[in-house]
Amino acid sequence: MLIKKIAILGGTGFVGQSLCNRLSEDGYELKVPTRNREYNREDLILLPNLELIETDIHNPKNLKNLLIDCDAVINLIGILNEKENNGKGFKKVHVKLIKNLISACEINGIRRILQLSALNADAKNGKSFYLKTKGEAEELLRSNSAGIEITIFRPSVIFGKKDSFFNRFAKLLKISPLFFPLACYKTKFSPIYVLDLVEMMTNSIKDPDSYNKSYQLCGPKTYTLKDLVSYTSKTLGFNCLIIPLNNVLSRIQAKIFDFLPGKPFSTDNYLSAQTDSICECNDLFRYNIKATAIEDVVPQYLSGYEYRSFYSKFRNNS
Predict the structure, then answer these.
(1) Which of 20, 76, 299, 315 has the CB geometry, 3.0–4.6 Å to 10, for a possible disulfide?
(2) What is the pLDDT of residue 232?
(3) Phi and psi angles of residue 195, each rounded to the nearest 5 degrees, phi first
Protein backbone atom coordinates (compact mmCIF):
# COMPACT_ATOMS: atom_id res chain seq x y z
CA MET A 1 0.00 0.00 0.00
CA LEU A 2 1.56 3.29 -1.11
CA ILE A 3 1.30 5.95 1.60
CA LYS A 4 2.72 9.41 1.01
CA LYS A 5 0.20 11.83 2.52
CA ILE A 6 -1.40 11.31 5.94
CA ALA A 7 -4.18 13.22 7.67
CA ILE A 8 -3.65 13.36 11.42
CA LEU A 9 -6.82 14.09 13.36
CA GLY A 10 -5.77 15.50 16.72
CA GLY A 11 -2.37 16.42 15.31
CA THR A 12 -2.19 19.63 17.35
CA GLY A 13 -2.51 17.79 20.67
CA PHE A 14 -0.02 16.22 23.07
CA VAL A 15 0.54 12.97 21.17
CA GLY A 16 -0.12 14.62 17.81
CA GLN A 17 2.71 17.13 17.95
CA SER A 18 5.24 14.39 18.70
CA LEU A 19 3.81 12.20 15.96
CA CYS A 20 3.89 15.02 13.40
CA ASN A 21 7.53 15.63 14.20
CA ARG A 22 8.40 11.95 13.78
CA LEU A 23 6.49 11.48 10.52
CA SER A 24 7.92 14.69 9.10
CA GLU A 25 11.39 13.29 9.70
CA ASP A 26 10.41 10.27 7.60
CA GLY A 27 9.33 12.52 4.73
CA TYR A 28 5.56 12.06 4.86
CA GLU A 29 3.29 14.87 3.72
CA LEU A 30 0.93 15.74 6.56
CA LYS A 31 -2.48 17.41 6.78
CA VAL A 32 -3.50 18.52 10.26
CA PRO A 33 -6.93 20.03 10.94
CA THR A 34 -7.48 22.60 13.67
CA ARG A 35 -10.31 24.86 14.74
CA ASN A 36 -7.86 27.71 15.37
CA ARG A 37 -4.92 27.86 12.99
CA GLU A 38 -3.23 30.87 14.56
CA TYR A 39 -3.37 29.33 18.05
CA ASN A 40 -1.66 26.12 16.94
CA ARG A 41 0.66 27.32 14.17
CA GLU A 42 3.64 28.07 16.45
CA ASP A 43 4.17 24.43 17.48
CA LEU A 44 3.86 22.95 13.99
CA ILE A 45 4.78 25.68 11.49
CA LEU A 46 8.47 24.69 11.41
CA LEU A 47 7.78 21.12 10.35
CA PRO A 48 8.36 20.61 6.61
CA ASN A 49 5.61 19.10 4.48
CA LEU A 50 2.90 19.90 7.03
CA GLU A 51 -0.30 21.70 6.05
CA LEU A 52 -2.28 23.14 8.95
CA ILE A 53 -5.92 23.51 7.92
CA GLU A 54 -8.56 25.43 9.85
CA THR A 55 -11.76 23.38 9.78
CA ASP A 56 -14.31 21.60 11.98
CA ILE A 57 -13.90 17.88 11.37
CA HIS A 58 -17.13 17.09 13.21
CA ASN A 59 -18.86 18.44 10.13
CA PRO A 60 -19.02 15.44 7.73
CA LYS A 61 -18.58 17.61 4.63
CA ASN A 62 -15.49 19.30 6.06
CA LEU A 63 -14.02 15.94 7.02
CA LYS A 64 -14.62 14.54 3.54
CA ASN A 65 -12.94 17.57 1.95
CA LEU A 66 -9.99 17.37 4.36
CA LEU A 67 -9.21 13.81 3.30
CA ILE A 68 -9.10 14.53 -0.43
CA ASP A 69 -5.70 13.37 -1.79
CA CYS A 70 -4.74 11.58 1.47
CA ASP A 71 -3.54 7.98 1.53
CA ALA A 72 -4.09 7.26 5.22
CA VAL A 73 -5.62 8.71 8.38
CA ILE A 74 -4.37 8.61 11.96
CA ASN A 75 -7.04 9.44 14.53
CA LEU A 76 -5.74 10.66 17.88
CA ILE A 77 -8.86 12.51 18.98
CA GLY A 78 -10.30 11.68 22.37
CA ILE A 79 -11.58 13.31 25.53
CA LEU A 80 -11.19 12.24 29.16
CA ASN A 81 -14.22 14.22 30.30
CA GLU A 82 -17.35 15.80 28.85
CA LYS A 83 -19.21 18.97 29.77
CA GLU A 84 -22.29 17.08 30.90
CA ASN A 85 -22.43 13.70 32.62
CA ASN A 86 -24.71 11.75 30.28
CA GLY A 87 -22.27 10.25 27.77
CA LYS A 88 -23.35 12.41 24.83
CA GLY A 89 -20.04 14.24 24.66
CA PHE A 90 -18.12 10.97 24.55
CA LYS A 91 -20.49 9.62 21.87
CA LYS A 92 -19.92 12.66 19.66
CA VAL A 93 -16.13 12.60 19.88
CA HIS A 94 -15.42 8.87 20.04
CA VAL A 95 -18.27 7.26 18.06
CA LYS A 96 -19.99 9.70 15.72
CA LEU A 97 -16.65 11.00 14.46
CA ILE A 98 -15.53 7.45 13.62
CA LYS A 99 -18.74 6.80 11.67
CA ASN A 100 -18.12 9.96 9.66
CA LEU A 101 -14.44 9.08 9.24
CA ILE A 102 -15.17 5.64 7.79
CA SER A 103 -17.65 7.19 5.36
CA ALA A 104 -15.19 9.93 4.34
CA CYS A 105 -12.42 7.38 3.80
CA GLU A 106 -14.71 5.25 1.65
CA ILE A 107 -15.65 8.25 -0.50
CA ASN A 108 -12.00 9.25 -0.93
CA GLY A 109 -10.73 5.73 -1.55
CA ILE A 110 -8.57 5.67 1.61
CA ARG A 111 -7.74 2.16 2.76
CA ARG A 112 -5.66 2.77 5.90
CA ILE A 113 -6.67 4.04 9.37
CA LEU A 114 -4.64 4.02 12.57
CA GLN A 115 -6.67 4.60 15.74
CA LEU A 116 -5.47 5.66 19.18
CA SER A 117 -7.73 3.91 21.69
CA ALA A 118 -7.14 2.92 25.32
CA LEU A 119 -6.53 -0.13 27.47
CA ASN A 120 -9.82 -1.61 28.72
CA ALA A 121 -11.85 -0.06 25.89
CA ASP A 122 -14.94 -2.26 25.71
CA ALA A 123 -18.30 -1.38 24.14
CA LYS A 124 -20.22 -3.88 26.28
CA ASN A 125 -18.32 -4.19 29.54
CA GLY A 126 -16.52 -0.85 29.84
CA LYS A 127 -17.24 0.65 33.25
CA SER A 128 -17.29 4.27 32.10
CA PHE A 129 -18.63 6.26 29.17
CA TYR A 130 -15.00 6.82 28.15
CA LEU A 131 -14.18 3.11 27.95
CA LYS A 132 -17.51 2.14 26.37
CA THR A 133 -17.34 4.72 23.60
CA LYS A 134 -13.68 3.95 22.89
CA GLY A 135 -14.77 0.32 22.57
CA GLU A 136 -17.64 1.26 20.24
CA ALA A 137 -15.17 3.12 18.02
CA GLU A 138 -12.98 0.02 17.83
CA GLU A 139 -15.93 -2.16 16.85
CA LEU A 140 -16.99 0.27 14.11
CA LEU A 141 -13.50 0.30 12.65
CA ARG A 142 -13.09 -3.49 12.75
CA SER A 143 -16.47 -4.09 11.11
CA ASN A 144 -16.07 -1.54 8.31
CA SER A 145 -17.20 -2.86 4.92
CA ALA A 146 -15.03 -0.52 2.86
CA GLY A 147 -11.91 -2.71 2.92
CA ILE A 148 -10.06 -0.31 5.19
CA GLU A 149 -7.03 -1.81 6.95
CA ILE A 150 -7.14 -0.91 10.63
CA THR A 151 -4.52 -0.80 13.38
CA ILE A 152 -5.60 0.04 16.93
CA PHE A 153 -3.24 1.20 19.68
CA ARG A 154 -4.33 0.66 23.29
CA PRO A 155 -1.92 2.43 25.64
CA SER A 156 -1.94 2.80 29.38
CA VAL A 157 -1.63 6.40 30.59
CA ILE A 158 0.75 8.37 28.34
CA PHE A 159 3.45 10.61 29.78
CA GLY A 160 5.63 13.33 28.30
CA LYS A 161 6.26 17.05 28.64
CA LYS A 162 2.73 18.19 27.84
CA ASP A 163 0.85 15.21 29.28
CA SER A 164 -2.45 15.48 31.13
CA PHE A 165 -1.42 13.04 33.86
CA PHE A 166 1.74 14.07 35.73
CA ASN A 167 1.16 17.73 34.87
CA ARG A 168 -2.38 17.59 36.23
CA PHE A 169 -1.27 16.08 39.53
CA ALA A 170 1.62 18.53 39.71
CA LYS A 171 -0.83 21.45 39.47
CA LEU A 172 -3.08 19.94 42.14
CA LEU A 173 -0.12 19.25 44.43
CA LYS A 174 1.06 22.84 44.11
CA ILE A 175 -2.36 23.90 45.39
CA SER A 176 -2.20 21.41 48.26
CA PRO A 177 1.49 20.58 48.91
CA LEU A 178 1.08 19.42 52.52
CA PHE A 179 -1.66 16.81 52.23
CA PHE A 180 -3.52 15.33 49.29
CA PRO A 181 -6.74 13.24 49.46
CA LEU A 182 -6.41 10.65 46.69
CA ALA A 183 -9.28 8.68 45.18
CA CYS A 184 -8.81 5.24 43.61
CA TYR A 185 -5.31 5.06 45.06
CA LYS A 186 -4.94 1.31 44.43
CA THR A 187 -5.58 1.49 40.67
CA LYS A 188 -2.56 0.26 38.73
CA PHE A 189 -0.98 1.91 35.70
CA SER A 190 1.98 1.19 33.42
CA PRO A 191 2.76 4.66 32.02
CA ILE A 192 4.13 4.71 28.47
CA TYR A 193 6.38 7.46 27.12
CA VAL A 194 4.83 9.42 24.28
CA LEU A 195 7.84 8.96 22.00
CA ASP A 196 7.69 5.17 22.45
CA LEU A 197 4.03 5.26 21.42
CA VAL A 198 4.87 7.48 18.45
CA GLU A 199 7.63 5.09 17.36
CA MET A 200 5.18 2.19 17.52
CA MET A 201 2.65 4.04 15.38
CA THR A 202 5.26 5.14 12.86
CA ASN A 203 6.54 1.60 12.36
CA SER A 204 3.01 0.27 11.91
CA ILE A 205 1.90 2.60 9.13
CA LYS A 206 3.27 0.58 6.21
CA ASP A 207 3.58 -2.80 7.91
CA PRO A 208 1.04 -5.31 6.53
CA ASP A 209 1.55 -7.45 9.64
CA SER A 210 -0.12 -4.69 11.67
CA TYR A 211 -3.29 -4.67 9.56
CA ASN A 212 -6.40 -5.46 11.60
CA LYS A 213 -4.39 -5.79 14.81
CA SER A 214 -4.81 -4.24 18.25
CA TYR A 215 -1.69 -3.49 20.27
CA GLN A 216 -1.48 -3.15 24.05
CA LEU A 217 1.21 -0.64 24.96
CA CYS A 218 2.77 -0.06 28.38
CA GLY A 219 5.90 1.23 30.02
CA PRO A 220 8.52 -0.95 31.76
CA LYS A 221 7.02 -0.73 35.26
CA THR A 222 3.64 -0.95 36.98
CA TYR A 223 2.67 1.49 39.74
CA THR A 224 -0.37 2.19 41.87
CA LEU A 225 -1.89 5.64 41.51
CA LYS A 226 -0.60 6.40 45.00
CA ASP A 227 2.92 5.49 43.89
CA LEU A 228 2.68 7.86 40.94
CA VAL A 229 1.28 10.79 42.94
CA SER A 230 3.92 10.26 45.63
CA TYR A 231 6.60 10.23 42.95
CA THR A 232 5.23 13.46 41.49
CA SER A 233 5.27 15.07 44.93
CA LYS A 234 8.88 14.08 45.58
CA THR A 235 9.96 15.23 42.12
CA LEU A 236 8.47 18.64 42.86
CA GLY A 237 10.37 18.75 46.16
CA PHE A 238 7.27 18.42 48.34
CA ASN A 239 6.87 16.21 51.36
CA CYS A 240 3.15 15.77 50.83
CA LEU A 241 1.06 13.39 52.89
CA ILE A 242 -1.02 11.29 50.48
CA ILE A 243 -4.35 10.42 52.13
CA PRO A 244 -5.94 7.33 50.50
CA LEU A 245 -9.71 7.57 50.14
CA ASN A 246 -11.88 4.47 50.37
CA ASN A 247 -14.34 3.61 47.64
CA VAL A 248 -17.25 5.59 49.13
CA LEU A 249 -15.17 8.73 49.65
CA SER A 250 -13.61 8.35 46.20
CA ARG A 251 -17.06 8.37 44.62
CA ILE A 252 -18.11 11.38 46.69
CA GLN A 253 -14.97 13.27 45.68
CA ALA A 254 -15.69 12.47 42.03
CA LYS A 255 -19.27 13.77 42.29
CA ILE A 256 -18.04 17.01 43.86
CA PHE A 257 -15.30 17.47 41.26
CA ASP A 258 -17.87 16.96 38.49
CA PHE A 259 -18.87 20.57 39.09
CA LEU A 260 -15.40 22.12 39.26
CA PRO A 261 -14.02 24.03 36.24
CA GLY A 262 -11.90 21.76 34.07
CA LYS A 263 -13.01 18.63 35.95
CA PRO A 264 -9.68 17.59 37.49
CA PHE A 265 -11.47 14.37 38.48
CA SER A 266 -14.94 13.16 37.53
CA THR A 267 -17.40 10.36 38.08
CA ASP A 268 -16.45 8.97 34.69
CA ASN A 269 -12.76 9.04 35.67
CA TYR A 270 -13.68 7.23 38.88
CA LEU A 271 -15.52 4.54 36.92
CA SER A 272 -12.60 4.11 34.50
CA ALA A 273 -10.27 3.73 37.47
CA GLN A 274 -12.18 0.69 38.70
CA THR A 275 -10.11 -1.33 36.20
CA ASP A 276 -6.31 -1.45 36.27
CA SER A 277 -4.68 0.07 33.18
CA ILE A 278 -1.97 -2.53 32.62
CA CYS A 279 -0.98 -4.77 29.71
CA GLU A 280 -1.49 -8.51 29.51
CA CYS A 281 1.28 -8.47 26.91
CA ASN A 282 3.30 -5.37 25.99
CA ASP A 283 3.40 -5.18 22.20
CA LEU A 284 6.25 -2.65 22.01
CA PHE A 285 8.54 -5.64 21.53
CA ARG A 286 7.10 -6.19 18.02
CA TYR A 287 9.33 -3.37 16.76
CA ASN A 288 12.11 -3.85 19.32
CA ILE A 289 11.16 -0.65 21.13
CA LYS A 290 12.66 -0.43 24.61
CA ALA A 291 10.11 1.10 26.96
CA THR A 292 11.23 4.32 28.64
CA ALA A 293 10.87 4.66 32.41
CA ILE A 294 9.17 7.66 33.99
CA GLU A 295 12.32 8.31 36.03
CA ASP A 296 14.24 9.05 32.82
CA VAL A 297 11.88 11.75 31.58
CA VAL A 298 9.36 13.11 34.10
CA PRO A 299 11.87 15.05 36.28
CA GLN A 300 12.95 17.03 33.21
CA TYR A 301 9.59 18.65 32.61
CA LEU A 302 8.23 18.79 36.15
CA SER A 303 11.32 20.72 37.22
CA GLY A 304 10.79 23.22 34.41
CA TYR A 305 13.50 21.86 32.14
CA GLU A 306 13.00 23.23 28.62
CA TYR A 307 12.82 20.15 26.45
CA ARG A 308 12.70 21.48 22.87
CA SER A 309 14.43 18.73 20.93
CA PHE A 310 11.32 18.10 18.82
CA TYR A 311 11.77 21.28 16.81
CA SER A 312 15.31 22.44 17.50
CA LYS A 313 16.75 20.96 14.29
CA PHE A 314 14.25 22.86 12.17
CA ARG A 315 14.92 26.14 14.02
CA ASN A 316 18.66 25.67 13.52
CA ASN A 317 18.16 25.13 9.81
CA SER A 318 15.81 28.08 9.31
Answers:
(1) 76
(2) 97
(3) -75, -25
